[in-house]
From TrEMBL:
Lineage, uppermost ranks: Eukaryota, Fungi, Dikarya, Ascomycota, Pezizomycotina
Signal peptide residues on this chain, from the entry's feature table: none
GO cellular component: endoplasmic reticulum membrane; Golgi membrane
Every Longin domain range: 6-118
Superkingdom assignment: Eukaryota
Gene Ontology biological-process entries: endoplasmic reticulum to Golgi vesicle-mediated transport; protein transport; retrograde vesicle-mediated transport, Golgi to endoplasmic reticulum
Protein name (record): Protein transport protein SEC22
Domain V-SNARE coiled-coil homology, residue spans: 133-189
Organism: Neohortaea acidophila
Amino acid sequence: MIYATEIVRLDGLFLVASMDDQNQADVQEMKQQARQILKKLTRTSEPRASLEGKKHTMHYLLNDQLCFIAITERAYPKKLAQTYLADICREFETSYPRTAYLDPHLRPYTYAEFDRYIERSRKTYQDTRATDNLGRLNDELKDVAQVMTKNIEDLLYRGDSLEKMGDMSSRLREDSAKYKRAAVRINWERMLENWGIWAALLLFMGAMIYVWFIR
């Protein structure tokens, strides 16, 4: 389950914060820890990671001086959470101009209305049928390297770093390209499933017209 979603600039300005489904004390604690982690993130930090707490996980995605955050139950699939954040990121950066959301004079929560899109997406990613469909793509990527995972207490209290690791970052870029290719292939498969019969019928009719009237 996805409990909360936030969009924050790396300078600490909150642009969007979704409403929680449940006001659980441990979720609120995780959100407080997430704010401490945000202070450690820079442009050289690992671009995506999952930070595990006792009951929940904080997933983040860095892109263009923005940090997209999702807090989920610990059992929620990491790759699915990252797919969710990638969708949120793509929609936000398509909906608003870069010069606007990076404006140094911007006020907190200026884009609160974007929460409507977040809520719709969250319901989709929590719907069993949707996660089954997205799971199909995950099954195609079993050889993909794991999303960088750390224990949140190690980061907060033991001084672990979130700086990029060369090998990991390189693999993530390769995995991203593979992910896109797999997504394109699945989209083509779905299109063929939906339109394949009609395409075959049109080809057959075209062949018959050619045989009877043109030859």
